[in-house]
Design brief:
The complex is a heterodimer of chains A (637) and B (490). Chain A has 637 residues and is mainly α. Helices cover 73% and strands 3% of the residues of chain A. The chains are: A mainly alpha (637), B mainly alpha (490).
């Protein structure tokens, strides 16, 4: 087995790609933590090897006919087999490449962003941990292995969100993210158990085969599908577990770019795609998912319209776009959802990395402030960010346009037109909030001369390395690469579609009869941009959004529809205030009290009886006489 | 009389007993010498127990390394030691926890001699229970291991130590008071005039009624020591009162003694009673899991938090045993091992922090990651193991138990699984409040764990990670015992 393993370049590449980051994680944690530079080199070295392997795998399997599966034993206990292995098919190869590319770029970018941080080595260790977990999860052949690495990804996310652990808000956000996703994961795990018990197998290919319908009743399939979807709800921040993601922005910005927009949160959608045929066995479940996706998309868009924090805008937009992907998948278009995942990974990472440059430079998250300080002076990031925002809004010819059109096409196929309207409304809102931000930075209203002079001159990426606060070339290059990807990826629409769904499945989403849809969608997006221009862009713009004019609605949006408030109250009054304190009181009073009472009763009895042994002859004789008298009475009568 | 080539099991026992005797003959003042002697003898015990774990012949299975000497003929009592897949992990656990415990107490200055003497006495009893195949000896060793707890807590402890010690002793003696009649009942009713476990466990020795009656006595008796809900309140109080190494041994090993007693005595001798009472066991275990997690949420003392997490985790052991399946038993035994190592690490890190800061109240700590990054790191690893993060040992145990529990008792299993959220919440709360946040200036001058003091914690972390990455090393040994046992059930 070993020799064949080393002679098979595919398996070797997959193993190296997935496992190498783990070794660097261990190495950094155990040995090289005091040496930040060496740690960074190790971590980036490992992820670049992974990247090369991933690209090699994608390239050499572009015309893959049959999925390649390799499994070994991890643990066998009685009837439970937990294999460890790889499943290489179109979807997993694509995801592996996405993760490797973004991880690599983000790690390079972090060289600049995290420079001088006291936790530099720890940061790279966690990055490696994440890369390992995420890549091994992407190519897992079995849902149990998938679940295991899914949890590890959650761990990496917890550690990275709470990276600045001295900040209360950061550690609080990390905890919140872990517990909320754990909540979804419980449902996921229960769903897997239902499948395991009734189907007997969690192999992904078997779950996707037609066998499932033969061996499980429709009700069971619906039940397990909805439970498993709980994992997606947690990880991809769908309604009602969506509030952890905006808080997760407490982590360093590159982390937000990698985990909380491009890859980790997309894992939920990836899982949906992974066992898409299984989910599509149940129409009820799919309608449920469509509803959840739609609610999520609209709720998050409204939240993004009122925030002033640059990262929060992109966080809400991530939630909303994830909801949009779920809509696409739930509407039955496998390709549309996955394609949007791919393009979104590129432009959303770009948006965050650009924001990171602004935050690094001006040390504020408020984009109105950034605009006032002369944010547009930073040429590379502002151009890249505008480009990415246009892609997010679905403007042609950028990548987001193509993938959004694919999802719109899928929504139009639904019998109920409400989903399409919701999608179009979402497109309008997305364009509006994206360009509200862009125009605020591009065309600031009250220019403060001091900052203009200070920052205006040296914003250019390439020579800024000399300035202490400038953007370093290591931060600029990843932006440029991602921007290029955003520009050209859309034109790979057809090859990607052929790759993912084969030649037979083509044409599912963009039939000719939806030509009008294209114009409507782009038109709505442009009108969103136009509205943003009127309110924030043009000369003398009021800089007040139409939502902000209605106080209660704006408050509702800004408070995240009071979802967090509800959780807080639930935790405080039900979990801490009722269950926990009742149980604790029971422990102290009832159980302990009972035992203590028994002990006291024993001691008390001993004390009472001790009067019998007082040593006084009269008492003893009296008792003896009384007893004898009683015995005599008993015998005589 | 039969002996393997070399009496490994007796050698383990002897290393404790000889260690004890040698320490008794060293003068009080030679503290360093006492510590080194303890280290050497505990090291021998650990190496032997690990050797046995890997030397056990998995293809042959059954009881191996048998040592048998007739002791009292008229009562059928033998000095009879042997190991199987269930006891090997326990022996290894005891060896590891003893060794790391001795290292953890390296800085002890008060009454060093007595402390290590009592510790060795305690551990000799623990080893004895794990390897003995004679009911009489099991009971004797069991009481030998309980008795030193009282002085160890009452003398070296803290926080209401007299109350804690007394409570613990009374509870455990109450347990013994149930076990002894159970054992005698079985001895008398078998009519074989033997205490030999192997003879008594032959099918058909006891009628179903006898099994049901004896099982409940033995289950409750041993269960008290395993922290079965609602007989658990001695355990957090005892944990809190005990000194560091004793907490480690107590939570890490002693509680397993109870669970192991349920397995070895109650389940082995009364399998039909086991099947009869399994429903009840599952209810109590599920209550323990959920209840422990919720009560843990309300604690403000680090050691109480760990104490209640132990209640919750030992509930998982109980739930695994209650499923009457191979997976459940595998998971339960694995969980005993994993939980033992994990709590030892917990108490070891908390012990260090308490030694230096003189507080274990969560509100008084905070920002410890800045002050003592290494000590905090150990605690955080233990906490992550506690909430069942994959690739750490307890994850696999919990996974197996939950799968089999959900299969056998869907509702109770699902409830237990849901408690995972609560346990994640309370562990992360503790980690956040104690280790994250602004650092406190008053602790600035305190030193972090030095390399030498870090060794025991490193060993524990290494064990947790090793069995987390290679669970089959453990499971393959356990199932050598569990598969034939379940298949042999009537």
């Amino acid at each position: 087995m070993t020799s064949s393993f080393f002679h098979n370049p595919t398996l070797l590449a997959a193993a190296v790609a997935a496992l190498l980051p783990f070794f660097t994680f261990a190495l950094i944690m155990v040995f090289t933590r005091p040496y930040p530079r060496l740690s960074a080199v190790l971590s980036i070295g490992a992820v670049s090897v992974s990247l090369i392997c991933a690209i090699f795998l994608l390239g050499s399997h572009w015309h893959l006919e049959e999925p390649i599966q390799y499994t070994g034993k991890w643990m066998i206990s009685g009837d439970i087999h937990i294999p460890f292995g790889f499943l290489l098919d179109q979807l997993s190869l694509l995801m592996l490449t996405i993760v490797a590319v973004i991880s690599f770029l983000v790690q390079v970018y972090s060289l600049g962003y995290m420079a001088g941080d006291p936790g530099f080595a720890r940061y790279y260790a966690f990055q490696s941990l994440f890369a390992w977990a995420m890549m091994t999860m992407s190519i897992a052949p079995n849902m149990l292995q998938f679940y295991i690495f899914w949890e590890l990804v959650g761990l990496a996310s917890y550690l990275l969100i709470g990276f600045y652990y001295e900040k209360f808000s950061a550690s609080e956000a990390g905890k919140k993210a872990f517990v909320m996703t754990r909540f979804g994961d419980i449902a996921f795990f229960l769903g897997l158990l239902v499948v395991l018990l009734h189907f007997g197998n969690l192999n992904i290919q078997d779950m996707n085969s037609v066998d499932v319908t033969a061996r499980m009743s429709p009700a069971l399939i619906t039940l397990s599908a909805i439970l498993i979807f709980g994992g997606v709800v947690g990880k991809s921040a769908q309604f009602p577990l969506l509030t952890w993601l905006p808080d997760a922005m407490e982590g360093p910005t590159p982390v937000s770019a990698l985990l909380h927009s491009a890859t980790m949160v997309a894992a939920g959608v990836y899982m949906f795609g992974r066992i898409f045929p299984f989910f599509s066995n149940s129409a009820v479940a799919m309608t449920t998912f469509l509803t959840i996706g739609t609610i999520t998309m609209l709720l998050a868009s409204t939240m993004a319209m009122v925030t002033r924090d640059i990262k929060q805008v992109w966080a809400y937009s991530t939630i909303s776009q994830l909801g949009f992907m779920v809509m696409g998948l739930a509407a039955g278009s496998y390709f549309a959802g996955i394609f949007h995942l791919t393009t979104h990974a590129g432009f959303k990472a770009l948006l965050f990395l650009c924001s990171g440059v602004f935050i690094h430079e001006y040390e504020t998250n408020d984009f109105f402030e950034i605009g006032k300080y002369g944010g547009r002076g930073l040429k590379v990031p502002i151009i890249c960010m505008t480009l990415a925002a246009a892609a997010l809004s679905g403007l042609p010819p950028l990548s987001g346009f193509f993938s959004k059109e694919a999802i719109m096409g899928a929504l139009a196929e639904q019998h109920n037109p409400v989903w399409l309207w919701a999608g179009l409304l979402g497109a309008f809102l997305t364009a509006y909030y994206s360009f509200r931000l862009i125009f605020s930075i591009l065309f600031p209203k009250k220019v403060e001369a001091v900052h203009q002079a200070e920052h205006g001159g040296h914003g250019h990426g390439h020579e800024a390395g000399h300035h202490h606060a400038g953007i370093y070339w290591v931060m600029a290059w990843p932006l440029i690469i991602l921007a290029t990807i955003t520009l050209v990826l859309g034109f790979f629409h057809t090859p990607l579609e052929n790759f993912l769904v084969g030649h037979h499945g083509g044409g599912e989403a963009h039939g000719g009869h939806h030509a009008w849809l294209l114009y409507v969608a782009v038109g709505l997006a442009l009108s969103g941009v136009g509205l943003a221009w009127l309110e924030f862009g043009r000369k003398g713009a009021p800089q007040v959004g139409f939502v902000e004019k209605v106080e209660p609605i704006s408050a509702l949006f800004a408070n995240r529809w009071y979802i967090d408030r509800f959780y807080r109250l639930f935790l405080d009054y039900f979990i801490y205030g009722t269950v926990s304190s009742l149980f604790t009181r029971n422990d102290r009073r009832v159980i302990d009290g009972g035992i203590d009472g028994m002990c006291r009763a024993t001691v008390g009895t001993g004390w009472a009886l001790s009067f019998l042994q007082s040593g006084m002859l009269q008492y003893n004789l009296m008792v003896m006489f009384a007893v004898l008298a009683l015995v005599a009475l008993y015998f005589f009568f | 009389m039969e002996f393997a080539n070399f009496p490994f099991l007796s050698a383990i026992l002897l290393s404790c007993v000889v260690g004890l005797l040698v320490i008794l003959f060293i003068p009080d003042e030679r503290k360093m010498l006492i510590k080194w002697v303890s280290l050497v003898f505990s090291g021998i015990a650990m190496v032997l127990s690990i050797y046995l774990f890997f030397a056990y012949d998995k293809t042959k299975g059954g009881f191996q390394f048998v040592e048998k000497v007739l002791w009292v003929k008229s009562l059928g009592i033998n000095y009879h030691n042997a190991v199987d897949g269930f006891s090997l992990p326990m022996l290894m656990l005891t060896g590891i926890v003893l060794f790391t415990g001795v290292l953890t107490m390296w800085e002890l200055e008060t009454r060093v001699k007595e402390f290590f003497a009592f510790t060795f006495l305690l551990v000799a009893g623990v080893f004895g229970v794990f390897m003995s195949m004679d009911l009489f000896f099991i009971f004797v060793w069991y009481d030998v291991s309980l008795f030193p707890m009282y002085p160890l807590i009452a003398i070296w402890g803290s926080t209401r130590k007299e109350y804690g010690a007394m409570k613990l002793t009374l509870y455990l003696l109450a347990g013994s008071a149930l076990i002894l009649p159970g054992i005698l009942y079985l001895f008398v009713n078998s009519g074989l005039n033997t205490f030999n476990l192997v003879t008594l466990m032959q099918p058909g020795t006891f009628t179903p009624f006898q099994q049901k009656f004896a099982f409940i006595l033995l289950y409750l008796g041993f269960g008290i020591l395993a922290g079965v809900w609602p007989f658990h309140t001695w355990s957090p109080v005892g944990h809190v009162a005990a000194p560091t190494a004793v907490s480690m041994i107590h939570a890490g090993v002693l509680m397993k003694l109870g669970a192991f007693g349920v397995l070895r005595v109650a389940i082995f001798l009364c399998p039909e009673g086991w099947q009869y009472w399994a429903q009840l066991m599952a209810v109590l275990a599920t209550c323990g899991i959920v209840y422990g997690a919720f009560v843990g949420l309300a604690q403000t003392d680090l050691k109480y938090v760990i104490g209640y997490s132990s209640v919750s985790h030992m509930g998982i052991v109980g739930l695994g045993l209650a499923t009457v399946t191979v997976e459940g038993m595998n998971g339960a035994v694995f969980q005993m091992f994993a939980h033992g190592v994990m709590t030892a690490l917990f108490f070891s890190s908390v012990g260090y922090i308490y030694d230096k800061t003189h507080t274990k109240m969560i509100p008084e700590l905070g920002g410890m990651s800045k002050t003592m990054p290494v000590a905090s790191g150990y605690f955080i690893v233990a906490a992550l193991a506690g909430i069942g993060v994959p690739c750490l040992a307890s994850f696999w145990a919990e996974l197996l138990v939950f799968i089999s529990a959900f299969k056998t008792y869907p509702i109770r299993g699902a409830l237990a699984i849901c408690a995972l959220v609560v346990s994640a919440l309370f562990m992360l709360r503790v980690v956040q409040r104690t280790f994250y946040g602004e650092k406190r200036d008053e602790f600035d001058h305190l030193p972090d764990v030095s390399f030498g003091l870090g060794i025991p914690r490193m060993i524990l972390v290494a064990v947790i990670v090793f069995f987390g990455l290679f669970p089959s090393v453990m499971i393959d040994v356990i199932q050598v015992a569990s598969i034939p046992f379940i298949n042999g059930l009537p």
